[in-house]
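pls design
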């Protein structure tokens, strides 16, 4: 099995482990922490996550410059590139620690009067741990990017699987011993240190990574900064759209509202991760195509092929959530989290379109045509803040999600599809015609879902699981018979045959 296929399979295995552990771990964690402390954890996390912007987009730019150097067979340039990126990220890690210490000292200014004295004390500890954890991820980015460039997806995804598996098993005992949210973040930090150590060992011993810290080409550095600046703008937008809601809720509605939004946002985060499981392993291929031939027809076919596969998977999750999500959320989150269902719904439905087009982001970056997208997204992100504040005051957590949904529809869907077609050179008419071929395959599953929703009273996880499995089987058969093309059917049957042979 190829590294790419293995990487995709392990990505989905990692997601499955994360979801299954979440089904058991999250309700226990919510009940031990309570809404107030869980809301505090989400609030601090949303603020610290802004420091991730210090990467300035350098992580995403590594692949483009690496592919260009490899196309010229210049190993010395690759070594200088590694050295340049390592120096940049070590400096960024230092800046992150400094900014974090300033934030900790001024935590009451950041959160205004929204917290109690005990919550401020806990928030300081959480922030210190989260900042240290984030600082470690910056130098780790170089080793991650180098491993991806060598398409060693099996190793990379195996690390993620282990991380997702160990996190709840290590955190739960600390929660039961009364360490609360501080114990949870301590476990995350420990696993980050372990991951960095393993990445360093693998890159040095197996991939023979080399660093050259002299002879830097300042022309390349200027080009790199120009390229990454617009990726940085895009990261600001993503951070605003996914984190500002929690911050605004903390300011205008309190930690309970943040907790309700946070649980719905957790569903959305899992949904986002499912979409990147496939597209991430094709990033080196996209950069290679652009560096060698820049064939728009080949890129459109790859873009559509990946988009169709992502649509099959994401549409199953989205429609399944529509029919079973409300019951699931009431069982999983418990009393007080009913509105989390609507929060997740408003987030995952509009984001489905940009998620099936995830590979397009890498195509833009490989072509160095991501500037316009970043500028337009920035304007829309500012509008999102303006829209969300009155909606929060009117509808609370659900209003915050609606504000984000409106901004996504305007920018990620309407503008981006026009931009792909008219500027990037992708044939979006062909893309949407291929996606539209799935419509007949959705009719039967949706009818079954409506029937279950209308005539069956689902109570308890067992009953929910039974009907969810029925829906998945109906969806899978309908997609196979009415939606998938020959290549997709061969991919499914080939995977099944390999599993049966084992």
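designed seq:
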């Amino acid at each position: 099995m190829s590294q790419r296929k293995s990487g995709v399979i392990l990505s989905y295995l990692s997601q499955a482990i994360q979801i299954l552990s979440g089904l058991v771990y999250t309700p226990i964690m919510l009940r031990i922490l309570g809404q107030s402390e869980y809301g505090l954890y989400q609030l601090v996390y949303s603020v610290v996550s802004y420091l991730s912007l210090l990467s300035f987009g350098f992580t995403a730019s590594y692949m483009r410059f690496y592919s260009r150097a490899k196309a010229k067979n210049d190993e010395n340039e690759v070594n200088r590139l590694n050295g340049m990126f390592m120096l940049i990220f070590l400096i960024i890690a230092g800046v992150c620690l400094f900014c974090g210490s300033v934030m900790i000292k001024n935590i009451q200014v950041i959160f205004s009067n929204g917290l109690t004295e005990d919550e401020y004390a806990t928030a300081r500890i959480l922030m210190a741990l989260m900042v240290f954890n984030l600082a470690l991820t910056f130098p780790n980015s170089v080793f991650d990017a180098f491993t991806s460039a060598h398409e060693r997806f099996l190793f990379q995804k195996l690390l993620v699987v282990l991380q997702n598996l160990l996190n709840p098993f290590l955190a739960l005992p600390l929660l039961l011993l009364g360490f609360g949210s501080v114990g949870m973040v301590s476990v995350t930090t420990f696993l980050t240190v372990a991951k960095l150590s393993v990445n360093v060992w693998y890159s040095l011993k197996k991939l023979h990574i080399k660093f050259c810290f002299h002879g830097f080409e300042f022309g390349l550095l200027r080009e790199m900064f120009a390229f990454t600046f617009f990726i940085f703008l895009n990261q600001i937008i993503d951070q605003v759209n996914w984190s500002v809601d929690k911050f605004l809720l903390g300011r205008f509605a309190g930690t309970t509202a943040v907790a309700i939004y946070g649980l719905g946002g957790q569903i959305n985060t899992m949904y986002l991760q499912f979409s990147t499981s496939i597209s991430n392993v094709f990033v080196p291929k996209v950069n290679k195509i652009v560096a060698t031939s820049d064939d728009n027809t080949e890129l459109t076919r790859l873009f559509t092929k990946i988009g169709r596969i992502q649509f099959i998977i994401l549409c199953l999750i989205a429609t399944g959530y529509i029919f079973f999500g409300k019951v699931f959320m009431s069982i999983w989150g418990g009393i007080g989290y009913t509105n989390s269902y609507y929060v997740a719904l408003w987030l995952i439905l509009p984001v489905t379109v940009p998620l099936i087009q995830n590979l397009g982001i890498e195509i833009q970056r490989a072509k160095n045509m991501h500037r316009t997208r970043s500028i337009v997204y920035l304007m829309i992100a500012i509008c999102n803040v303006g829209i969300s504040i009155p909606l929060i005051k009117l509808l609370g957590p659900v209003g915050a999600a609606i504000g984000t949904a409106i901004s996504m529809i305007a920018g990620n869907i309407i503008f981006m599809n026009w931009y792909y077609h008219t500027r990037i050179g992708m044939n979006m008419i062909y893309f949407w015609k291929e996606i539209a071929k799935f419509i007949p395959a959705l009719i039967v599953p949706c009818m079954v879902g409506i029937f279950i929703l209308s005539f069956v009273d689902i109570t308890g996880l067992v009953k929910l699981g039974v009907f969810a499995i029925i829906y998945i089987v109906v969806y899978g058969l309908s997609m196979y018979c009415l939606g998938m093309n020959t290549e997709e059917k061969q991919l499914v049957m080939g995977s099944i045959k390999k599993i049966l042979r084992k």
